[in-house]
Amino acid sequence: MRYDHIEMVKGDSAEFEMSVIDPRTLEPVDLSGATARFMVKENYADDDGDAIISVDTSTGITIAIDIIHVSVPADATENLDNEISNMFWDLQVESGSKRWTVGRGTIGIYPEVVQV
């Protein structure tokens, strides 16, 4: 599993990719037919419905063999009241009866400098 800190600017689109490698073989994992879900929450214990950002394979995640591409639309953060710098994210993959977290970490969403 990968652990990273992500920074975003409020009201901007954000994109990142993550490849999934089998730790035993160090080979790419074929994720054909899998679904994925990316969530940002203020607290680990928050309900999924209270997530600040929620993107899945029907709303912004694409999977190409072993690469997961996450695209967060600008409107996902444009209505946040102020800077939120101590939140948590994770990226889960589900395939058949298996579900696993392939990445997690902290995230900061900061106000934009240019006001358009």
Question: How is the topology of this model organized?
Answer:
Layout: E1 2-9, E2 14-19, E3 35-41, E4 53-56, E5 61-64, E6 67-72, E7 84-95, E8 98-110
Parallel strand pairs: 1-8
Antiparallel strand pairs: 2-6, 3-4, 3-7, 5-6, 7-8
Strand order of the largest sheet: 1-8-7-3-4
- The chain-level mean pLDDT equals 89
Overall geometry: elongated
- Computed CA radius of gyration, to the nearest angstrom: 15 Å
Which structural class do the helices and strands define?
mainly beta
Strand content: over 45%
N/C terminus separation? 38 Å
Question: What is the ordering of alpha helices and beta strands?
Answer: EEEEEEEE
> Would you count the extended β strands for me?
8
Tally of alpha and pi helices? 0
Give the low-pLDDT segments.
none
> In percent, how helical is the residue content?
under 10%
Query: What composes the largest sheet?
Result: 5 strands, mixed
How would you describe what is shown here?
With 116 residues, the chain is mostly beta strands. The strands form two sheets. The protein has a five-stranded mixed beta sheet with strand order 1-8-7-3-4, with no helix packed on it. A three-stranded antiparallel beta sheet has the order 2-6-5, with no helix packed on it. Strand 7 and strand 8 form a beta hairpin.
Provide key terms for this protein:
single chain, 116 residues, mainly beta, 5-stranded mixed β-sheet, 3-stranded antiparallel β-sheet, 8 strands, 52% strand, elongated
